[in-house]
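Please, structure for the following, as tokens.
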Amino acid sequence: MILTNVQLGPFRSINTAQNCTIDPKVTVLVGMNEAGKTVFLQGIHKACDALNTERYEVIEDYPRKDLTRYNKTHSEKPENAITLTYMPEQEDLDLVNKKHNTNLEFGFTYSISTNYNNTRTISIYIDEKPIISKLLKSSGFTSDTIQSVKEAASIRKLVEILDSLDLNDNEQKIHAQLTARVKSSTWDNVTQYEVFKSLDARLPKTLYFSDYDILPGKLNIKDLARRHKQSENDPSQLTPKHKSILALLRMADVSIDELSETDGYESLKAKIEGVSNSLTDQIMQFWKQNENIEVVVDIQSDPKDEVPFNDGANIYLRIKNSRHRVTTPFDKRSRGFIWFFSFLVWFDSVQYQFNAADEDRKLILLLDEPALALHALAQSDFLTYIDHLSKNHQVIYTTHSPFMVHSDRFNQVRMVEDKDKIGTVISENLSGTDPRTIFPLQAALGWDIAQNLFISKRNFLVEGPSELIYLKHLSSILETKNRTGLNDSITIVPTGGLDKIITFIALLGANNLNIAVLHDYDGKSNQKIDEMIKNKIINPKSIKNTSMYTEHKDKPSDIEDLFSIKIYLDYFNKAFEKQLPEKIKPSDLPSGTRVIERINRYLKEKNITLRPSGGFNHYLVASTFGSNPPKTIDDKTLTNFEKLFSDINNILE
């Protein structure tokens, strides 16, 4: 089951309901501090948390500026807080279709709304007519009975008609089964109720994790036991640090009573160390900053410590560094490691509780500013861990770090802004967003370029970020069709224009790196490139121009001419839909070989101004393409890019 859409609000800083599509794998919420990213995660979490402890509270959650007004109508007409839309996966549909004799197809969705009374409303549609038709054909009803019930559009109506008929033994048996189904449902559409109940049992629950949930360095066992007992009547007794230690104990299969016993020390320690070792092994798969550390758990008393640690045994967590052969308190180590390890404990603990009866049950992981305390390279490592998690669970996380965003996956990014007099706004539109909000995305592109200059051994130099976006996405599209894309070992490096390519080649060549070049073609040879070839700075076979991959060989061309005119115009129209009087069609354009030049002439002829200096922003079209790549693309375009990728792969082999 996949969460596909969230409509949240009014909720805290979200004054007006915000609609946000959710990526099937990873969704990234990018925004400034206090923009409302955490609010969005917490709003989702309250609707379906894995441990079933969260609820919407009017005083806590309804926007304060409208709270007085809303309180007057809440009891009679509680407002909707959230609507979650789900799409069952194929295995879910196969199970439901087999169980309920339905014929639901992939792409079927349904929604669950939760109001401020924490009451759910289900929006699901299933036509019962085909189900009744199959039932009548396969269940041995007589022709007279079929004739009598042929107008029944629902199972409930079918039962009403059957109630009044003289049925044979077989028909009475079926009638009894249908009657039992009707009585077990309070919905008018019985099948909708039954399908929903089956899907609800497979619904993914949420796990919210933030910086407040990290493990402490030590905790007093008596105090923990007392708080645990009192929490039955007063949940506030258990703070995040107590809950995190309880999570560790649950994973070790150790109860509070067992932990409080005076004997059995070795047995207890063995259990907890076993879990710690397992978690250490897990974290070392992704933690590359220091691979000489491990977590050590101990249980002992210290009567000289301060209250409450001087009363009986304490549980201690320490970090052992095998290189320096020392141990230090867990909470004295780097904040990044503490966060990472604490998350693994919490995540595994929730899985242990939640999946006890169903090991395949999925979670939606809501991570608030994950890896914030990690070094930039460690954050990149953590992205690999998020990809690992997303193989089995959807992940939604917040960030304002450029190192926590994949520069080739901007389609997963949702922008979060706090706008004056409006409140929190969530959008997929990068072009209309405050520059301060999109800065991490710009920095992510810059970081991608910077690391490529010094790390990659195979570099594909292009003129600008537009080429980077087009080439990355077309390569991915080709690979999904089992066609040739750009080799994963090759790095695309935007240089900022043809004039700067020579500088990049000099820098990269000094590092003995492999280089290929693609540049736009103005119809004549370039003196600087000719000099580079003459001076043997670069092999002429390594330099390609865009005209080589269009139908107009050796004619002026740009990267955009590798696309069919229809596809490029589709994205041009999307990028400038608010400024154009009407969509531009291919037949509207004057003749020529360069689509950009033809569009510019059209805009000038029609007196359409898209920017003061004339023409239009090419990057905005590329950005629109990158944020919402096409689901289908014509073979001519694919062939053009495939030939380019084949040539570049061969050059940089």
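The mean pLDDT is 86. The CA atoms of residues 213 and 240 lie 5 Å apart.
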